[in-house]
Amino acid sequence: MSPRVAVLGAGVAGLVAAYELVGLGYDVDVYEASPRIGGRIHTHRFGSGRSSPYVELGAMRIPTKHRHTMRYIDELNLADRVRPFRSFLSDANNYLSAESGPVRLSEAMPALLQALRERLPGSVYREASLQFAAFLTLTVEAVAPVRMRGQLVGNVMLTGMLVDRLDGMDLRPYLPEQGRPARLGEFFIDNPGFRSFLPLGLDGFIDDILTETSSDLVRLDGGMDALPRRLADALAGAVHVNHKVVELRVRERDVVVELVHADRTIVRRYAYALCAIPFSALRHLRLYDFDPDKLDIIRETEYCSATKVAFYCREPFWLDEGISGGASYTGGGIRQTYYPDRGSALLASYTIGEEADQLGRMSLADRHEYVRQQLAKVHPRILEPGMIRSAVSLAWGQDEWTRGGCAVRWGKDVGQIVEEQELASTPQNHLFFAGEHCSKNPAWIEGAIESALDAVDRIDADVTGSYPVRRSA
Ligand SMILES: Cc1cc2nc3c(=O)[nH]c(=O)nc-3n(C[C@H](O)[C@H](O)[C@H](O)COP(=O)(O)OP(=O)(O)OC[C@H]3O[C@@H](n4cnc5c(N)ncnc54)[C@H](O)[C@@H]3O)c2cc1C
């Protein structure tokens, strides 16, 4: 008989793992500390009905190349909810925050090109090269955390080399056009050597930037939380919310899990357990008899904060400004603003890194007021009395159950990245690990799923003694 497996954490990694284990004939108990399943997939509804306006406070888009994620969408009968996700600067009327004030994307190019020419005096470059370089630096500026931003824009020599190189290339397929941003992702795929021009750190982060700004992104209409909900529904009562793991003890043949539920301490012994709690939260639990290098990776894995602030508005005033979707680079301390395809729930600010922490440390009232005032520089109508019906925000760096946005391995070479990922997913006797932090694709749903499939393979191989099926391959 298959042993019962404890799955700790009901984010997408824990839920996919539990779903697959049940499919293989295992009984599972899923323990989730918070009252909500889904973890960093978090759809907030302004109202109690399923059709209420909503915003995504966690994951909001899926790159279609993320095949595991897309497969679960199919398998869970969610394919009819898939809609295109219009990304950053995908609408010619989206704004760019400039020193002189907000400028429409369609009008910003001449100013960006001029700025680039002034930084590269004495050289004559093709318009196309300058245009492409301007879009690339703009995208990095808008998406990257503070510490990476100056690396490209501030470095005249590097910018010069970059434009020099672009001058010898056919850029026609990649240039921005009316209603479509530059195809940066396709460019880097077709020209893999080009990333060697980027400074260390940015060369690793550029993949995330390219994926985030690609045109091959989708979302789930009605809310991304349909994915964890469908998984939990399939687990029929095996998911226990408000069960907080407080202690894990690894023994030779089993794992002892101590939980707190409704102020009561519960101690359970499992032949197998799978921990899908982010390391940023796990490092605050009592962990006994773990290997020293495992404890080190749990303590030292770096997380980058992320904060989202959303306003449910009285009316979609951005439509009057000709904006029907996409996102503006609103700059300042609020960075990016995403417009819904329909309805009036606005993702007013999406920040990562230092700016996310700055917002995260503010009281809710101060945070919302700060975002309102900053947003008014681009959209003055947000200050109209009664324009904001309701505000909501989530600072993942300060969230009790996550204590970080996502795991990052920026500035590390390939060898270090592989070593860290392997260490993160290495089991401790019968305690296995999953979560975006254990994967090759951290900071994405895809990575969380990939790691869950890998952990299920490892558990099943350990139980049956047979070679793993490689569900994750
Ligand atoms: C702001 C933001 C935007 C993002 N945008 C995207 C996007 O657009 N597309 C994309 O693919 N990915 C995106 N991501 C990343 C994606 O959301 C994550 O990679 C993925 O959801 C992580 O899943 P997980 O299961 O590894 O962790 P989590 O979702 O964090 O799940 C861990 C679970 O463990 C629980 N837990 C914590 N402590 C305990 C405890 N002591 N006992 C029991 N349970 C506990 C938590 O409550 C949580 O439910 C985004 C992330 C953030 C923060």
Could you explain the architecture of this structure?
The chain has helices at residues 12-23, 67-75, 105-119, 127-143, 146-153, 156-167, 184-190, 202-212, 226-234, 279-282, 292-300, 353-360, 364-376, 414-425, 445-464; strands at 5-8, 28-31, 43-45, 54-56, 62-63, 82-84, 95-98, 101-104, 217-220, 239-240, 244-250, 255-261, 264-270, 272-275, 286-288, 303-304, 306-313, 327-331, 335-338, 345-352, 388-395, 406-407, 431-433. The protein has 473 residues and is of the alpha+beta class. A five-stranded parallel sheet has the order 10-2-1-14-23, covered by helices on one side. The mean pLDDT is 92. Flavin-adenine dinucleotide is lined by residues 8-14, 31-34, 39-41, 58-62, 244-245, 276-278, 281, 285, 306, 308, 396, 401-402, 405-406, 435-436, 443-448.
CATH topology of the largest domain: FAD/NAD(P)-binding domain
Look at the structure and give the mean pLDDT.
92
**What form results from the Cα inertia axes?**
globular
Q: How many β strands by DSSP?
A: 23
Widest β-sheet, arrangement of strands: 10-2-1-14-23
Percent in strands: 15-25%
> Which architecture of the largest domain would the CATH scheme give at its second level?
3-Layer(bba) Sandwich
**Sheet with the most strands, sense and barrel status:** 5 strands, parallel
Number of helices: 15
Name the features.
473 residues, alpha+beta, FAD/NAD(P)-binding domain, Polyamine Oxidase, Chain A, domain 2, 5-stranded parallel beta sheet, 5-stranded antiparallel beta sheet, 23 strands, 35% helix, binds flavin-adenine dinucleotide
